[in-house]
Amino acid sequence: MIDEASLLPFAGLANGLPSILAQTESLWDWSLDGWIIATGILCSLSGALLGCFLTLRKLSLLGDAISHAILPGIVGAYWISGSADSLSMWLGAVIVAILTVWLTESARHYGKVEENASTGIVFTGLFAIGILMVVRMDRVDLDLACVLYGDIESTPYDLLEWSSVPIPRAFAIALIVFLLNASIIALFWKEWFASSFDTGLAASLGLRPVAMHYLLATLTAMTSVSSFESVGNILIVAMFVVPPSTAFLLTKKLHWMIVVSCLLAIASAVLGHLAAIHVPRWFGFASTSTAAMMTIVSSIFLIVAILIGPRDGILFKIYERWWLSTKILSEDILATLFRDREQGRSPRSSLELQKHLLATPFRFRLALQRLVRLGWVQFERGMVTMTPQGNIEGQNLVRSHRLWEQYLATQTGVTDQRLHTQAESLEHFTSRDMRAALETETQSPQLDPHGSPIPPEGTENVSRNP
Amino acid sequence: MNGWWLDYNLRVVLAGTAMLGAASGMIGVFLLLRRRALIGDAISHATLPGVCVAFCISYALGSHEKSLIGLLLGAAISGTLGALAIVGLRHWTKLKEDAALGIVLSTFFGAGVALLRIIQTLPAANAAGLEGFIYGKTALMIAEDAYVIGIVGLVLCCSVFFLQKELKLLCFDSGYASSQGWPTVWLDLLLMISVVSVVIVGLQAVGLILVIAMLIIPAASARFWTYHLGTMIAIAASMGCISGVLGALASSHFDRLPSGAAIVLTALLFFLLSLAFGKEGGLCWRVRGIYFDEKRVDRSHVLRGIYELLDMKGIGIPVGALQTEEVSANELQQLRTWPTARLSRTIRQLIRDGSVVGDPLGKIALTAKGIRLSRESVRMHRLLELYLLRQAELTGEAVDRGADMIEHSVDDQVLTLLEREFGKIADVPASIHPLNPGASPHDR
Asked: Which residues of chain B neighbour A314 with C-beta distances below 8 Å?
C-alpha cells in the first residue's frame, strides 16, 4: 500500500501539464515574469552570440576568467567613487577585464606560459587581489553573493522611466548589450568568420585577427559585466558555453550554429524560469534561482543533443553500429550458404548456421529476418536455403572475398595467415565496380591463393527480365 | 621575543598550508604538462552541488549542525562526478577541452546555486557557513584538518612516486602511451581524482577559487627553472609549500589579511620572480640573449660593410696582410644608414676586439683578424645570395635582404652544405649585385 502523502511532492508531475498551467495562473504575473523572461532571453542571446565565436576559438573559459578577474575592478571603482553606482563599477570592471586579456596574452607571448596556465594565473591572482581589497575596505556593503549568483528575480523592481514607460534597468542594459553584440558581429562578420577557423589565413588576408581577438574579449567582458547583476558572473559562463556547444554538435555551418544556439538560448531562458517556479514545488520547496535553472535547462538540451544528435549522437552511433553488424552477419550467412552449395554440402538448419557463425541467437534471428524480408533466403523443410536472388548476392560476396585474397596476396604481400581475415572484413564493403577493378588488377585469375575457384560476377538478368 | 612558533594553533595552520601547497604544486606540474591547468577550475566549482546536497541530507536527517566530514564527502562525490563528466564529454563527443571544462563548471555550479537558493529558504537552517567554502577560512583550521591534509598529501606523494613513469608518459605523449597498452583513461582519471582530493582539502584552507591558483601558479613558476620533470616537481612542491607557510604567517601577523589571498599572492610573487629571473626562459635571460645577438649581428654587418667599401673602391683585400686601406666611418654610414651612435659603439667594440684599428668617428681599417672575420662574413652572405638566387628563385633586392636575415643563424654545417652545392669555392665569390650605395638595396 502506498502512502498518499509520500506522493504529494510529485503531484505536479503526476497530474501533468494541465495542473502546471493551472498553477501558473496563480503564480504568473506578466508584469513581473514577463520582464524576468525578457531579460533572461536577452542575456542568454548575447551569451550565445559571442559564445559561438569563443567556442570555435577554444576560448570558452575566457568568460569564466573575466568574471572572476573583474572583482578588483568592481571593488576599486567602489573604492574610488565611494558609491555602489553601477556605471562606475561597470567601467572599472570593463577596464580590469581588458587588462586580464592583455595580461594573459602577454604572459603567453613574452613568458611562453602555456595558454590555460596563463589564464589561470591571471584570473586567480586578480581575484585574490580583489578579495584582499574587499576585506581591507571599511564599508563592505557590496553584495558579493549577488555578483556571484545573480538576482534576476529582482529585475522588475528596479525601474527606469523611458518616455514615460517604466522599463526595468537590467532589461534596458541587456537590450543595449545585445544590440551592440549583434551589430558588431554583423559588422565584422567576415573578420570573425575567418579568424575563428584560420588565424593564419585571416592575418594574410589583412583581416586583423589580433584586433578581432581583443574586440571579442572586450565584448565578452562587457557582456559578462553587464549581466552579473541579473545572471551572476559564473552562470553567464554557462550562457557563453552551453548553447553554442550544443549547436556545435548539431550543425556544421557557422551561421546555422549561431541560429541554433540563439534558439536554444531563448528556449532555455523561458523554460528555465518556468522550472525555477515549478520544479522546487514538486518537492515541497519554494521557488529557486531562475538563472541557475536556465543553466540546468540548457545543459539538459546539451545532454539530449549528445544522446540523439543526428550525426554524432551517442544513441545514433550505437544504432548505426548495431545495424551495420547485423547487416554483416546476414551477409556472412549468405556467403556460408553459397559455399555450402558450391561444395555440395547438405543444407543446414538455422541452429547449425548460428553455431557455425558463433552468433548470439537474438542477433542471428534479426539477420535471418533481414534476409527473408529481402527475399534472399527461404526455409525448406526446416533447412535454410538461398533463393535465386540470394544465390546471386552470395556468389558476389564470395567473389569479392576471393578476389580480395588474390589481390592482397599478389599486390600487397599480406602474409597467408592474415589473408582470410583481411578479405573477410573487406568483402562487405566491395561494390560491383570495385570487383571489376580488382579483377583487372589481378589479371582475371581463375583460382584464389587457397585454390578455390573465383565465381563469375552474378548478374540479375534472370530475375529482372522474366 | 618571537613567540609565533610557540602558538599551537598557528603551528597547526602552518603545517596544513605547507602540506597543501606541496601537494597542489606537485599535482599541478602534471596538469600543466598535460595542458589541463584549468581543470582545477572546473572541479572546484563542481564541488558546490555536493556540498549543498550533503547539507540537505543532513538537514533531512534532522541534524541542524553542519557536519564537516559530510560536507567534504559530498564535495568529493560531486567533484569526482564533474571529473568523470569532463572525461566523458571528451571521449564521447567532439567538443574541445575548453568547452568540456566550461560546460561542467557552469552546469554543476548552476545546480549548486539552485540548491543553495532553496537551502536559504529552509526554516532554521544555518546555511551561512556554506559560503565560507567559496572564500576559505584558514584561521579556523584545526588539528584534524591538518592531519587530513597531511594524509592526502602523503598518499598523493606515494602515488606520484610509484606512477612517475606512467604519468610522465601520459603527460608527454598520451597517444604513444595508449598505443603501448598503458591504460591512459585510468591514468587520466587517477590524475583527476588527485585534483579532486587537493581541491577538497584546499576548500577549507584557501577557498573554492583560490585553490585553483595553488594548482597552477607553483607549477608554472617551476617551469622557469628546469626542463626536467623530477626537478620540476620538487621545485613546484617547495614553492607551494613556502607560499603556504609565508602566506599563513603574513595573514596571522597582519590584521584583516585573509589567508587564502595572502597565500595566493605569495605564490604569485614567486611566479613573477621566476618569470623575470628564471633560468629556462625567464625574461631577463631572454632579453640578455637578444641584446648580445643584436650586438653580434651589428659587428658582423660593420665588418662586411668595410669589406664591401674596399671592394667597391677596387682595393684588394690581400689574405695575410696585417692591415687594409682606411675607410671613413662616414662612408660606412651611407652604406647602410646606421644611427651614428650605434655605428660608433659597434666600431668601438670592434677596436676593443682587435678586429679594427683607427678612430671610431674618423678613419678605420681592418686588422689581420678583421680581414679574416670580414671575409668569412662576406663569403657567407654571398654564398647565401647565390643559393637564394638559384634555388629559391628570388631576385633583386629580395636576395640581398634574404641573405641578410639568414646569415646570422647559419652554422658551419650549413656552410659546408652550401659549399658542396656550388662546388668548392675557396675564395669570396664576387657579388651578384652592384655594391654602389646609391643603387644598394641596403637603404631602408
From this structure: 92
Asked if pLDDT for residue B80 goes beyond 80, the answer is yes
Q: Residue B30 has which C-alpha cell?
A: 602534471
Give the one of A68, A145, A245 whose C-beta lies nearest to B131's C-beta. A145
Residues B30 and B186: beta-carbon distance below 8 Å? no
Measure the CA–CA gap between A78 and A88, rounded to whole angstroms.
7
Q: Do A241 and B103 touch (CB under 8 A)?
A: yes
Mutate: best of B32, B107, B199, B246, partner A, most A CBs <10 A: B107
ipTM, interface predicted TM-score of the complex:
0.80
User: What is the per-residue pLDDT across A23-70, written as a single tens digit (0 to 9) for each?
Assistant: 555 566 667 788 888 888 999 999 999 999 999 988 888 888 888 888
Write the pLDDT tens digit of every residue in A91-136: 888 889 889 989 998 888 888 888 889 999 999 999 889 888 877 7
pTM of the predicted structure, to 2 decimals: 0.77
Dist. CA A244–CA B289, nearest whole Å: 45
CA distance from start to end of chain A:
69
SS3 call for A168: strand
Q: Does A116 touch chain B (CB under 8 A)?
A: yes
pLDDT of residue A141: 54
Residue indicated by cell numbers 644608414:
B337
Grid cell in block for residue B161: 612516486
CA atoms of B394 and B399, how far apart (whole Å)? 6
User: CB–CB of B210 and A296 under 8 A?
Assistant: no
Interchain contact, A128 vs B210, CB within 8 Å: yes
pLDDT higher than 80, residue B269: yes
At B356, which helix (H) or strand (E)? strand B356-358
Residue B382's closest CA among B299, B307, B288? B307
SS3 content of chain B, % helix, strand, coil (to 5): 75, 0, 25
Q: How many helices (H) and strands (E) does chain A have?
A: 23, 4
